[in-house]
Q: What sequence folds into this?
């Protein structure tokens, strides 16, 4: 659901042989707890608030028109942000003006997040309006959508917090991966088609898969008691989250030794297991917020979670976790990295701090070496000058006639 680029290649840099295994293991556990307990609920709160506000303000009396407006706002916005990503990357850069970059990038995240929620809301409600909410129909639409994603090797795009975390870091802040990786500097027509396919086709299939699994739990998990159903989802979700994170080293070992279709199937099984946990965590938190946070004033409740959760994520430097952007291919990383969930927060922080200290140490060594070289050069010149002075002492010319000295 959110970008997975953060984890691609990062594990190799963080998990270096020189680092302490115990220290790295502790940071990994803390990152997992942070993603599951802190970041994920905040992301769910933002989505729930934005979705609820759209329900309240976008023609609530006309569900068809409301859905169409959400589709228009959402998919148009996502398409535009995909097309102009390089322009934004050149225009808003901290090396040019740090304040404008910070303000512009957070405004970008806020607008992009609003478009993401509306794209999902529009597609979700459109399917609700034009299909029956019975188990067979829901299962059929979900299975077909999941099969299409599997054929395109795009199942990993259903991932979301707590199994992915998008940090607000400068490199690639505005980058949006497309399905076919078309270079926009060569052929703009193909690039526009690539963006449209990535946003409209892959994005819609992901929404349909999420909707189907969510509704199936609505149907079968204590449908007569919404509160206990939400608590049950929350418990199931976090149990699956714990199991999936615990299996991650084993799955990494297995995928590193598999190739081809077997490796792809193993990676997809791991992704689907994490997806079941993610949907249940989201469903549990979402419904509990509806039931417990100002249930008699849902509009105010949605405003609180919309604004509060976004500000909270900005302060944590991970507001990009609310975004659904980019298309990523299953098992495209080498060896077992395809099943490593990108939840690097504290690990990245300590890595940056180590790099800063290492850079400072190298600068100090370079300064000391320059000072030593200058001192050495000075001593050498003095010695050379001394030798020249000794060799340049005036010599007496003894004339051939000694009487001339008188």
A:
């Amino acid at each position: 659901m959110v970008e997975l680029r953060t984890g691609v290649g990062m594990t190799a840099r963080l998990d270096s042989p020189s680092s302490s295994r115990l220290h790295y293991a502790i940071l990994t556990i803390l990152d997992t707890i942070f993603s599951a307990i802190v970041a994920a609920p905040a992301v769910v709160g933002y989505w729930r608030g934005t979705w609820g506000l759209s329900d309240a303000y976008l023609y609530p009396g006309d569900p068809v028109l409301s859905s169409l407006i959400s589709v228009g706002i959402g998919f148009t916005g996502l398409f535009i942000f995909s097309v102009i990503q390089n322009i934004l990357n050149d225009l808003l850069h901290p090396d040019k003006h740090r304040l404008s970059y910070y303000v512009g990038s957070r405004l970008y995240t806020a607008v992009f997040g609003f478009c993401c929620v509306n794209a999902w809301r529009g597609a979700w409600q459109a399917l609700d309006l034009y299909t029956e909410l019975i188990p067979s129909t829901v299962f059929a639409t979900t299975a077909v959508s999941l099969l299409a994603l599997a054929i395109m090797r795009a199942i990993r795009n259903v991932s979301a917090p707590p199994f992915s975390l998008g940090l607000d870091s400068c490199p690639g802040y505005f980058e949006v991966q497309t399905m076919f990786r078309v270079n926009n500097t060569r052929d703009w027509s193909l690039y526009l088609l690539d963006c449209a396919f990535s946003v409209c086709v892959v994005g819609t299939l992901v929404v349909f898969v999420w909707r189907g699994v969510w509704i199936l739990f609505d149907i079968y998990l204590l449908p007569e008691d919404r509160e206990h159903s939400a608590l049950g989802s929350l418990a199931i979700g976090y149990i699956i989250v714990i199991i999936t994170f615990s299996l991650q080293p084993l799955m990494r070992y297995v995928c590193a030794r598999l190739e081809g279709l077997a490796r792809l199937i193993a990676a997809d099984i791991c992704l689907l297991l994490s997806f079941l946990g993610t949907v249940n965590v989201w469903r549990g938190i979402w419904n509990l917020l509806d039931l417990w946070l100002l249930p008699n004033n849902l509009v105010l409740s949605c405003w609180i979670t919309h604004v509060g959760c976004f500000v909270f994520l900005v302060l944590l430097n991970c507001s990009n976790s609310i975004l659904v952007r980019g298309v990523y291919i299953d098992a495209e990383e080498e060896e077992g990295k395809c099943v490593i969930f990108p939840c690097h927060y504290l690990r990245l922080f300590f890595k940056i701090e180590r790099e800063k200290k290492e850079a400072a140490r190298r600068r100090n060594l370079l300064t000391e070496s320059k000072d030593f070289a200058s001192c050495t050069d000075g001593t050498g010149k003095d010695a050379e000058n001394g030798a020249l002075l000794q060799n340049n002492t005036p010599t007496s010319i003894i004339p051939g006639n000694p009487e001339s000295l008188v």
